[in-house]
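Sequence, structure tokens reproduced for reference:
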Amino acid sequence: MNPKHKTIKVGVLTVSDTRTPSNSDTETFDSSGHELKELINRFNVIESATVVEYDCVTDDLEKIQEKMIEWCSERKVDVLLSTGGTGFSPRDVTPEATLGIVQKLTPGISQAIMNESLKITPMAMLSRAISGIYKKTLIINLPGSVKAAKECLLVVASAIPHAVTLIKDEKEISKQFHDQFNSKKDIQSKVPECVTKVACRHRESPYPKISMASALTIIKEQAVIQYTKNYKIMYPTVWIYSTGDELENNKNPCHNCIRDTNSLMIKQLLEQDNYKGSVFNGGVIRDNWNDLCKQFEEAFNNADIIVTSGGVSMGEKDLIKLVLQEHFKCYIHFGRVNMKPGMPSTFVTLNYKDKKKCIFCLPGNPVSAGVCTHLFLLPYLRLISGRKSIVHSFKAKLTHCINELDVRPEFKRALFKYENGEFYVSCLTNNQQSSRLLSFLGANCLLTLPSSKKQTSIKAGTIMDIILIKSIENTDVSALLFSRDLQVKNLRVRPEDKCKPDNTVCLSLKETLDFMTQKNEFILKSENIPTSSAMGYVIDAPVYSSENLPPYPASIKDGYAIKYVCDGSWSQKNNIFEVVQVSVAGTEPGCQEKISEKKCARISTGAPIPPGANCVVQVEDTSVISKSPDETIELTIDILKEPQLHENIRFIGSDISVGQCLLDEKCQLGPFEIALLRSVGCESVSVYKYPTIHILPYFSNLACGISIILENILKQDGFKGKIICHSFFKSSNELLELYRNVFEHRDIIIIINYDYDNFNFSPSFDIEKHLSIKSTFHNIISLEFGIIKLELEKKRNVFFNLGMDSNLVYNYAHLFILPFLRFSVGKKQQISSVITKSSIDLPISVYRYMGAKLDYKDGDLIVTGFGLKDENCIVLNQASQAKDFNTIDTTAKLNVVITENSDSYFIHY
């Protein structure tokens, strides 16, 4: 909008008996209202608008009207957006409340919303939402669901600023709108002939096939770090779209639909990689020239980086490159990469309104989209975020031979392990088709394989390059974890376990962790949550598919579906085929004509195979013989290469079949696992519930500071439960009162204790005494080095009592508290440890555990520093390794527990 335009004040009013503005409870949090505020304030979908009023009211007609009249009469808002209460339920009275006060109806706005909504789902006809004007305020009813409210707002957002100026009778500003509109090119531009004249399309891609290394070099050249006025890194906004007529945004009772998994998967991959910028999921764009132009225009106005999946190959509906090049005059740096999967990957830049925009156009197959996100998008985002390492590459020993290589360099999904001080890699499955998300299960890396033009096979034991995509499965446990030299006091164990006279038992770190978890039978609780929100959770039971994928026979390539007769006479025949129909993504299966001999159907990737056809010939293996006079239709084609029976066809259930086990119990859900579940319509999943953690600082503000450090450690580890940091307590009576009123079943209580000089705690702060926890109901662990005291009470509350030395809190959080929490939510891997060496002599610490920096160099993990700010591991100190009292030299083997990621390698728990 022109700078002369005034700010448009918006009010968002949520109508619901169950929703609240507070985010303390995810089940009642007002997601719809929050999403509308984000769209307006952060993404500026209504130009020059900002949300100045926000509230939730119950489904009560008088209360709704009271709030609307208050906001409108007092001129608090220019636009009032209500969300919720527009359906058929007796409680849905928002339209009646609106009708009771508006002085003019605005049916055009309501009709526009209804028309666009019906394109998405026929259920839109069940909405009764209206819009109108009360005094000088425009009121628009929106649905209550997050998705529907967002989609409806986007339909009318561009018209709202002009509507406001008309309502206020601001003639000068209204004239500016008309002038601005008339000066712009019509977004529904004329579709160029290269799109309409299908018969003249390229038989092969016009874009040269460049190497992966060249593609990454180009991306590096375009990456520039932006800074704020305070010299902090400015993280660009990212918008993500999926494209395709065949895609459904949400659950559909028809099993013949293909669900959009890519947009959420890519968004979650960015979240998993800790990208700090705003990421917006734009959902699905249809394969339509005008829709693509409109959505790209909106994205360019609101985002710096646009990511699409689908529409970049050579099918009739693959329009992404053409829209960007012909309509927006973008510069396409590369349109093909010599790799498998992901060959059509495209990287584009555009100078739009004096701002640089970067567009990553990824293939539509889920595996290809996931692989290319790791190989192209994430490295770019790491570069502009100032990270040192943009590709997390390792070298590992191949555990088996590989005899069949592809002509293109391939990135196979594989498992990377650390075992006995060495790195190993192995492929998980031979079926790694780019549509098959199951090939990602259990994988944590991409194994880089050379082209078959360079070599025909690879022997077992060969050192290979791999790129990490998620956590390393660590099968090696440091020796010290089993060494029984950890002095544990007051450990209540089984009668057969022997203790010293002072009630001290010698256990290994591993045994102590086992005692804290399995032996104490901490009760695992389950909950059912939306699949889209389940990243980082662990499922509590196997998940089986209720659908086939694909739900119909589908084409793997752009080309022609034919009926191939395998009788050995192909070379003697005249192989001219008549094109009798077209099958594109989105074509309804079963509504096609039967294909007979010498007939064919032009077909796009993912489109249903017509009846009678038994193979698909790729475009590159054909030539056009005749076409219609206007060149929009191919009439006959010549097939230049003999096909194979069932070639380039995915049959029903070939990726996933009904009843197939998708995920095993205790599988941790990441972007690929969630995409897999969503691909077969699994909209909710049963997972292990995260407990609530109360952090209780005792006696001083110093304890409060330690509690904040601890909270950050928990969040960095991906803890998704509630973390409540209380104000510090000056007396045990305050703590007792809180315990009686707040702590619930399965809460975890961490106390930051003032008296850290006394290993057995001061009598004034004895938990047993003041919280009346009977010794017959619980187990206690009190460690000799530093202070940590664990108690399991009969209600299954768990208490940790820590000192206020920040180093000890850091160490014990990673060695005891985090492993316990990981166990409590069903994670298999509680602690990650390696055996390594040091590049420098390490001092003997006064503590058993030393914070240090771990790096990956020349194929090895190595400790490179001690006591640094960027420490990412804990060295388990053994004085016996030192040649003198002061140091451990570089010849000694070190037992290291990894605590966090670094820029030079990428290891999770």
User: Anything to note?
Assistant: The chain has six domains: 8-184, 206-385, 393-474, 487-523+690-801, 554-649, 832-898. The CA atoms of residues 778 and 793 lie 5 Å apart. DSSP finds 19 helices and 49 strands in the chain. Residues 832-898 form a domain with the Beta-clip fold (CATH 2.40.340).
